[in-house]
Amino acid sequence: MRCFPTISDLFEYLFHIHIALPIQTFGFFVAMAFILSYQAFRSELKRKERDGDIHAIKREVIINRSSLLIELCLNGLLGFLLGFKIIGVLLNYEAFKIDPAKYIFSLQGSIIAGLLCAAGYMYWIYKDRKRTSSQSNKATVETIHPYQLMGKIVFYAGFWGFIGAKLFDMVDYLYQHGFTSLHDIIFSSGVTYYGGFLFGMLAYFYVGLRNGMKLPYIADMGAPGIMLAYAIGRIGCQLSGDGDWGIVNAHAKPQGLTWLPDWMWSFNFPHNILNQNTRIPDCYGSYCYQLSKGVYPTSFYETVICLLLFLFLWMIRKHLTVPATMSYIYLILSGTERYFIENIRINPRYHFGSLSLSQAQIISIGMVLVGIGGIIYLYLVKPKRHLLT
Predict the structure, then answer these.
(1) How many other C-beta atoms are found inside a 10 Å radius of the C-beta of residue 112?
(2) pTM of the model
(3) Using CA atoms, how far apart are residues 2 and 243, in angstroms rounded to an integer?
(4) Over the stretch 265-285, which tens digit does the pLDDT of each residue have?
(5) What are phi and psi of 273, to 5 degrees?
(6) Can you tell me the distance from the alpha carbon of 362 to that of 175, in angstroms, rounded to the nearest whole number?
(7) How far out from the chain centre does Cα 303 lie?
């Protein structure tokens, strides 16, 4: 077993055919996590609407010159960015292949293609609005079903989730290294899952509440999809060797686990994308390093555990009749899983006297306590309060 920094590496390993695909493995599985969790969210939104827990909303839309101009400008900007980068990739494929992420976030691209795509997007929106409303300032009523909000949910959750992930990682960076420079804090740090989770969930709640959904139903519908997204994302961590591994595992494999492949017990992450930390003999290419000592492959453990937890949540979802139960169960399961896996992971530690906890463990404790408190309230406190009243 080895790591696969790019999808080309994985494809070549599986099929013994080399196809130059400038797609990083971690990025690919993050995209897959969004796609698969999108389907889980969408399915739950449709089911909850059929059950009558959430409802479609009717919204009056007045198309006038001002609103049309704003919409044209926004879509023109989106079209420009897509054309600027996508056509730019085709015209500068060699530069993109060397470092896709650097190219995407650079100022390189095709201005002409961007302008053409912007014009195309704006014309398409203009024709569509003219078709739906033949008169200026005419009010039309739109019916929006909850599942049709998924595009907005993904955008908001993705954007704010990224902001949260960076902010939480910056807190870890400051605690570990102190203030060095603003550039180092912003650009040299990575991302933290729980920061992305908290900010992404707040954005998801915001969209749901703004569209007439009740908070308990919003939280319940999101729980299985979030668990699935986390499991799929961890596949990318494991296959790429992105540093989300455990502490050194110098223990011999237990007698009862002799059937387990060695890499599942202790793994050196050869050809990891971080190029850490010992060079592999007779290796040529961009990724020729492996860990000098085997570590716990915690990303693999989390993938297996969280896929099983997703299946459990998916199986029980139709049997939970009390709103918010699913979300509290999710908090307990997710918090417990992460708390214990942190004991064999490498992460900065915060010290409280003799107690040493990672940022994730602190948040996990909070999640479990909220989950347990919520279940107690729903099934013990709330029924008694109803009896008294």
Answers:
(1) 13
(2) 0.78
(3) 14
(4) 999 999 998 888 899 998 887
(5) -70, -20
(6) 15
(7) 14
